[in-house]
Amino acid sequence: MGRLPRFFADDFREKGVSRAIRSDTRIHGHRSTIRLAACLVGIGSDQLSIPATPSGAPWFRESKMDNASRSERSRNAAIQAALTIIARDGPGRLTLDAIAREAGMSKGGVMHQFPTKQAVLMALLDQQRAYFEEFSQRFKAENRSATAEPELAARIATWREVALKREPVAFAILGALIEDPGFLSVGRDTEAKKVDLIKAEAEDPQLALLRAAAAQGLALASLLGISTLSEKERAQLFERLLDDAQWLALAKPGKRSARRPKSPSKSRAS
Fold this sequence. Notes:
- This protein is mainly α.
- It has 3 domains: about 5-65, no CATH class; about 65-115, Orthogonal Bundle (Arc Repressor Mutant, subunit A), CATH 1.10.10.60; about 120-250.
- About 65% of the residues lie in helices and about 0% in strands.
């Protein structure tokens, strides 16, 4: 058996054997030394329980398997801390040190996830884009049969969701703009493709783009805090933009859908 390391003995005295074994990651792999430590403090080997995974594998292997989950938790904590700092103190106070303090992490732990402040800001924007892309896809799937223009409907509904979730989005955009205005051009190609899809499905492409642009304007005015509309008024305008039937008279003559247009469901409406 190996010699009992000093930090094992200290932990066993302060915490007790069972708690020390579970809490000290430095004990990984030292099974024989653990058993020796148990004997030294008067616990027989048959009374010592070393945690194991459901498959029976040693507990230290399970810990290694959980590294990805721990890393994701740390990443999310750092992102949330960055949002909190921008909202409370302003983008100028966003530093890796401030993120570490806010998240309760070491600076090294933050830098393991985000080497620079720019990387944090890019992650903030990516998180917002991912959320709204998932929302858009889900809205299309749920409302495809209710509208002749599902891409347009999803676009309007997504901008409505942006307006409803305005604070996190506004903080992320504000932080990115101050650090580097070029950040906001990253998703431009994706946006251009969405516009092409709206035009391709529309009977009147210009009218479709007008409705989409109106929704975008409503959301951005809300984000920037310059809107004079009440929440109720904004919600009513979004509903009119979503209602295909209200736009039929303005559409240029063309091949119309055989079914009567409907208003997509009020998913996540306020």
